[in-house]
Amino acid sequence: MLFSGIPFLFYFLPLVLVIYFAVPRGGKNAVLLLSSLFFYGWGEPKFLFFMLAAILQGYLLAILIEKAKREYPGGKRSKVFLAASVALSLGLLGYCKYADFFITNFNALTGLSLPLLKIALPIGISFYTFQIMSYVVDVYRGEVKAQRSLIDFGAYVAFFPQLIAGPIVRYADIEADLKDRRHTVEGTAAGVRRFGIGLGKKVLLANQLAELAAHFNAAEEKSLLFYWLYAAATMLYIYFDFSGYSDMAIGLGRIFCFRFPENFNYPYISGSITEFWRRWHMTLGGWFRDYLYIPLGGNRKGQGRRLFNIFIVWAATGLWHGAAWNFAAWGLMFAVLLMLEKLWLPDVLQNKMFGLGVLRHVYVLVAVAVSFVLFDAADMAAAADIIIAMFGGAGVPAVDELSLYYLQSYGLILLLAVVGATPVPARIVADLGRKKAMAPLMAVAEPLFVLGLLVVCTAFLIDGSFNPFLYFRF
């Protein structure tokens, strides 16, 4: 079930809201848990067993960790329970997501023909696995207390707004809201507004850009212009798809009176790859920083160890996104760029003289465009062919009629997407809202705009428009 689908928008969500606000406060988390399990099991009920097993082990072992630290301070029992929980979490993720990847590569290396397990990937398993791991580690560190209510803990892990596409919500972020939250009209309105904007980004921009990328993949004859149109469409599609889902998740959280962390902060305005990754998928970057990079030693053990830690983190980041070599190469590409920035490029990247401020942004955009071609490709060979062609290595014409046709057909969408990927629209709205003369007009215009977005998006969805789902890989 997708947020950008008719069943969710007009059946599941309204019914859940009615039940949720009708039950007493003490039953609201139970409603969230049951509705989330129904939401998750809608497409493939058997995946519920993986999730329930993950929830149960995280719940029980966190309690055992806390008890062991209290009764045997300084002992090894808590570490054993922590290691068991992490092993179970990573073991389940590895079995579901990476088993066939490793078997395939083992067969290629050894010449054997071990049969593949052909395991269907449970949607969102990478997200809820990381949430459970962060919770258990935080309990071990003493940063949060173990949750004694299985219903409340299950609601945290399975909460449907952020279940399949993030953001990655740490238990500490919503611990207080799980216990006691106050619902207000203002909060609900803010949530609806954020959800509507996210839905518009997904349906009206991301889906159209993905359609352009699909036309490129289906075309037999391609030009240099078409290759770059594809690269631009892909990087914008991935951004609006991912950030649109994050906006919808944050908005839904606000409706239920939870405050989720922000996940994107206009990454395409960055002047370096380091800055880009401070703005892109911020909850994932924060997770790897706090639970992998810093425990490995961070930047505290010398430059060589720091670079090694960056390599490990970005190899893991790449493989987190998918069990294929192009994802690993995608992560390692960013590792190399980040290492170069830290070693040799800091002075250049910080110099805004002689137009270098503009060149920094061009460098980032070109690097990110190449990276997302690699990310989106079916395999390494396909990615290499496209990247070589982008830089004139395929001997294709610079322009042809087909590329001009698609440029004309999707030019407005591309322009809107480029502008929408910057803070300009938000700043204009904020500036108008601060003007006293405009305040009454904005108070009326804003809800009408959101309502219009919902109506237009619904029309697109009813029409059966292209509606791909990026997160099957995660």
Ordered list of secondary-structure elements with their pairings:
Layout (H helix, E strand, L loop, with lengths): L5 H17 L5 H14 L5 H25 L5 H34 L14 H17 L8 H9 L1 H4 L7 H9 L5 H34 L5 H32 L17 H7 L2 H12 L9 H19 L3 H19 L2 H5 L5 H21 L3 H11 L10 H20 L3 H11 L4 H24 L12
Structure described in brief:
The protein is mainly alpha-helical and 474 residues long. It has helices at residues 6-22, 28-41, 47-71, 77-110, 125-141, 150-158, 160-163, 171-179, 185-218, 224-255, 273-279, 282-293, 303-321, 325-343, 346-350, 356-376, 380-390, 401-420, 424-434, 439-462. The protein folds into two domains: 6-181, no CATH class; 187-272 and 345-462, no CATH class.
- Structural class, by secondary structure, is mainly alpha
Q: How many strands appear in the DSSP assignment?
A: 0
- Per DSSP, the total helix count is 20
Main β sheet profile:
none
Q: Return the domain count.
A: 2
- CA-based shape: globular
- The first-to-last residue Cα distance is 15 Å
Share of residues in helices: over 70%
Radius of gyration: 23 Å
- Strand residue content: under 5%
**Spans where pLDDT lies below 50 across 5 or more residues:** none
Average per-residue pLDDT, rounded, comes to 91
Secondary-structure element pattern, one letter each: HHHHHHHHHHHHHHHHHHHH
